[in-house]
Known about the structure:
The protein is α+β, with helices and mostly antiparallel strands. Helix content is 37%, strand content 13%. The protein is built from seven helices and four strands.
Amino acid sequence: MNDQQPTENFSSDFQEDFLHLLxxxxxxxxxxxxxxxxxxxxxxxxVANLAPSVGLSQPWRFVRVSxxxxxxxxxRNFEEENSAALGDYKGEQAKLYASLKxxxxxxxxxxxxxxxxxDPEQGGGLGRKTMPETLAYSCTMAIHTLxxxxxxxxYGLGWVSILKPDFITTALDVPKDWQFIGYLCLGYPExxxxxxxxxxxxxxxxxxxxxxxx
Length: 214
């Protein structure tokens, strides 16, 4: 990691590359099963640790899930919750939902769970007295930092949200007061596409930002 201070603004070429990175970052559900290189996960998490956090509290807690039994419990919970979610839709929308692949849990070589420590000693409470939720926001920033760096390295990341938080906390045997933020699948994608899969499949389309003037 280069700690040298930049002496000038980022070049226009870099800015264009960064825009491409944002455009090609995707929520991956289709993974190859071959493993990532040795040390890749540690490298990714060291970069995620550069994310901004309220009061420099770094409240994120990463759990690398390698145990096959624990993984199977996670997969079972996803399948149960996904089946329950299907009941919220009717007609053609239900058919479309049922056809969507909404996780890469069975194929991704790496599983990462991200939790938030709700009262970390680090940071001394700065900046979160009136908005304690900024701790969880900080953890989301760490995930996004990880996501972009993973894409830059040629890896894919998928965020699985169809899970019961309390179940995940118990299944992974972490402190009960940790807040579950997200479960991530990580590995090499089967293919890349600059268009979100949900948009390609006709579920939704990206809209322009909503901006209010006051």
